[in-house]
Amino acid sequence: MTLEEIKQAIMKLSPADQKHLIVEVIPAIWGEACKDEECLLKIRHLVDEDTVKQYRKQHMNGI
């Protein structure tokens, strides 16, 4: 199976199955797959700014 085929299969999953992928599979491969700065920067950009704002609001910016 090619990377493109895997991507297409993932995109066809239900939102619940996509969430399971993110929550269960990604952490399982994280240590080996993402060892460089480029990968880490990409993950940081995926974090939704509204989620960060909501977290900061809930935790009073770490106070």
Salient structural properties:
single chain; 63 residues; 0% strand; 76% helix; 4 helices
The overall strand count is 0
Helix content: over 70%
Q: Could you give the distance between the termini?
A: 48 Å
- Low confidence ranges: none
Radius of gyration, taken over Cα atoms and rounded to an integer in Å? 15 Å
**In DSSP terms, counting alpha (H) and pi (I) runs of 4 or more, how many helices?**
4
Please state the structural category: mainly alpha
Average pLDDT figure: 88
Q: From N to C, what is the helix and strand string?
A: HHHH
Shape: extended
Largest sheet: none
Q: How much of the residues is beta strand, in percent? A: under 5%
Summarize this structure briefly.
This protein has helices at residues 3-11, 15-33, 37-46, 49-58.
Structure description:
The protein has helices at 3-11, 15-33, 37-46, 49-58. With 63 residues, it is mainly alpha-helical. The N and C termini lie far apart (48 Å). The model has no long low-confidence stretch (mean pLDDT 88).
List the helices and strands and how they pair.
Elements: H1 3-11, H2 15-33, H3 37-46, H4 49-58
